[in-house]
Amino acid sequence: MTLKEKDAIRDSLQAYCAKYPSQNKAAGSLKGVSAGTVSTILNGKYENISDEMFRNISSQVGSVAAAGGWQIAETKAFRDIMKAMRDAQELRLVTWITGDSGCGKTTVARIYAKENREVFYIDCRKDMCRHNFVREFARTVGIKIEGHSTYDAWDFIMREIIQMDFPLIVLNEADKLCDDVFLYIIDMYNTLEDYAGIVFFSTDQIKRRVDTGLRYNKKGYQEVSSRIGRRFYDLDPTSPNDVYAVCMANGVTEKKKTDAVIKDSQAYSFDLRRVKKIIQILKRQAEQ
Q1: Is the dihedral of CA 8, 123, 121, 164 positive or negative?
Q2: pTM for the predicted model, two decimal places
Q3: Domains of the chain by start residue, with CATH
Q4: Distance between alpha carbon 221 and the CA centroid of its chain, in Å?
Q5: What is the largest CA-CA distance in the chain?
Q6: Of 66, 74, 242, 256, which residue is most buried, by most CB within 10 angstroms?
Q7: What is the pLDDT of residues 226-237, one digit of tens each?
Q8: In which band, very low, low, confident or very high, does the pLDDT at 182 lie, cut at 50, 70 and 90?
Q9: Which residues contact 43 (CB under 8 A, 6 or more apart)?
Q10: How far is CA 118 from the centre of its chain?
């Protein structure tokens, strides 16, 4: 790894640390990285830091854009998500954003989290138990919870967030959470109301789950529905104009090629993952 690459990672790490109340909190949020390592890199002392460690840090704090120079286009979903997240953070709102798979929800959420202070992004998984969810939450906030109960760890997280200026909690694919973890949403809202914004992301499958929970009066679903204002923020489906914008942003400008990308993606509901794949193939063919 070249010195220039290491310097670029150091700059990204410095920007990452600036989003946290302290450098130690930022270090605590990184997997497999000590506070000492962070301090050493920020001071420009690279001699005892392995390339593997630089790559590890880069993967956690570096650019959202994929290797190879992929550029993120400002689609309608991009603009709508950015506005919804900004409103949630500044006004301390609770919002549940739903959209089709492949519309760019995760990418935009990660960009917002990387570019703004006091934004804590968590990828949810269906196998997350309560302890795992709280542990991941604590790590993201930069809190060490080893040796503490789940109850105490949750209390630490809530107290830490309340002390911040404009914190925003982002739970991606929140519909995957099991009911036991799902109920933490209620407690989180009750504790952080007027102190923090909360944004959930998922496909519209969550609507069926909530409707079923309300119909059968399942524990917690009435409260969850109330706390998101009894409505979801539905993103518009990806359009041909959005696909065109992605093409332009990534150097596919010939009409024949943009038409081909739009036509191909139409058969797949304009899924932006499919769009990215086709554009990368076209660019590779052009290089060859």
Answers
A1: negative
A2: 0.89
A3: 3-61 (no CATH), 76-234 (3.40.50.300), 240-287 (no CATH)
A4: 24
A5: 62
A6: 242
A7: 989 899 999 999
A8: confident
A9: none
A10: 13
